[in-house]
Amino acid sequence: MSGALAFETHSAEAIPAAERHARPLDLFRLLFGGCNTFATSVLGSFPVFVGLSVQDGLWALLLGLLAGSCALAPMSLFGPRNGTNDPVSSTAHFGVYGRLIGSGQLLLTAIVFFSLAVWSSGDALVGGAHALAGLPVNALTQSAAYTLMAAIVVAICIYGFQLMLWFNRVAVLATTLLFGVALMAFGSQIDLSYAGSVQRGDAGWWAAFVATATVAASNPLSFSATLGDWGRYVPLATPRRRLMAAVLLAQAATLLPLLFGLFTAAIMATTAPEVVATGDYMGGLIAISPAWFLLPLCLIALIGGIATGTTALYGTGLDLANLFTRHLNRARATLMVGLLAVAVIFVGRFVLNLVESVAAFAALIGAFSCPWLAVMVIGYWARRGHYLPDELQALSRRVRGGQYWFSRGWNLRALAAWTVGSTVGLLFAQVPGKFTGPLSAWAGGMDLSAPTSLLSGATVYLLLLWGYPESDQVQGPLGHGLRRHQDPRPQNRLPRHD
């Protein structure tokens, strides 16, 4: 593949070394481009909408962003190491069939965040056009905006990695400049002393602070199963510190749209408090925007929404093609997932009114993705980065047995850790108006789903690896650091496929 318009023919099979031309800078661009939009600004507005002051909201956003970024950074190592996406790499830790856990998370996350990107950007486009040129706001104009956004995103994803990378290179520069203009538009109104409605020492302050940190952490954590989609084009010899630095810097750069959301939400709370009561951030932003900013607002919505949508949707198409190699290629699989996501957009927006429910569901994804991420990162450390890339493709080749077959295709250690972590996370979940875990009241109403699922899943996996070590064959020549005894059981190697 060469050039931005080279059609991608690979799915999730290992990318040949000769075709790995991406750099850590490209990883930065894709990650930042996927976040540099109004969807992230909506997350940044959350602390004001739950009553925090600007200063407390800023600390909560910083804490959550730092925690989520540090958890995400090691996931950048799998793509260059194995030349494939993260669900396929998870075969080494979850088993040949256990990799379906990662595939399921990838599919659900793609649909949810693609839908949210199209909804928020489509509504911003229609609202901006209404204020700028009097375009009516109704089901017809909203449907047209959603269709336009979805069609562009699906087309880019079908064409493949190079076109998506080229678009995000442009999008990062364009939306960063536009957000700079946006801060200028509201600079004189920004009030860093905004006190909020919930003060330190109040009963609900900690719940609001932790909820904000959790929302901020969910932004980087939503990429936990997708980094390999892009990292598989990065050469194996790339230093690990550069890969993780690209992830950390990309997430640090998302402070731009996060802070824009925080500052503009504080302006809304002062000048249009009814917006805070309804939670309609985009409607409030359009209402307080000066007339000259409406065009830049529409451009951010269009460019940023496309960038976010492509990074959300792209990976699940190539993963689905890898699962059904006999029936689907990557382009057809991407089109299928795109059509499903478009159906969710229209049914949820106009029939079942599922917009808020999907947003709440997106928050619960953390309870499932955090223990999966913990198993992957701990597994990488325990194996000292040793993998057998050819045997990771066992499920797509319909071959039973091999080093990663474990117990009938499942690694019960990883499965137990993920199950316990997800369950504990749900018990501590707190999604107002949608779902309340039975242990959230014990935690003072705080949403501790992400940290508890991460810590419990990691603890269980570490204990199981220590008490019941994996076979030496999967560990490689360096062995692993949690060895209590040696497993003498023989393992059958997977047949080679040339």
Automatic annotation (TrEMBL):
Under Pfam families, the record lists: Transp_cyt_pur
Quote the InterPro entries the UniProt record gives. Pur-cyt_permease, Pur-cyt_permease_Fcy2/21/22
What residues form the membrane-spanning segments? Answer: 30-52, 58-79, 100-119, 139-159, 166-186, 206-231, 243-271, 291-314, 335-352, 358-382, 410-428, 448-468
| Span list, region Disordered | 477-498
Instruction: Report the GO molecular function annotations.
Output: transmembrane transporter activity
Gene3D superfamilies (alphabetical):
Hydantoin permease
Cell compartments where the protein resides: Membrane
Domain of life, per UniProt, equals: Bacteria
Membrane topology term reads: Multi-pass membrane protein
Q: Where is the composition biased (Basic and acidic residues)?
A: 484-498
Describe the family membership recorded for this protein in Swiss-Prot or TrEMBL: Belongs to the purine-cytosine permease (2.A.39) family.
Q: What is this protein called?
A: Cytosine permease
Organism (species): Inhella gelatinilytica
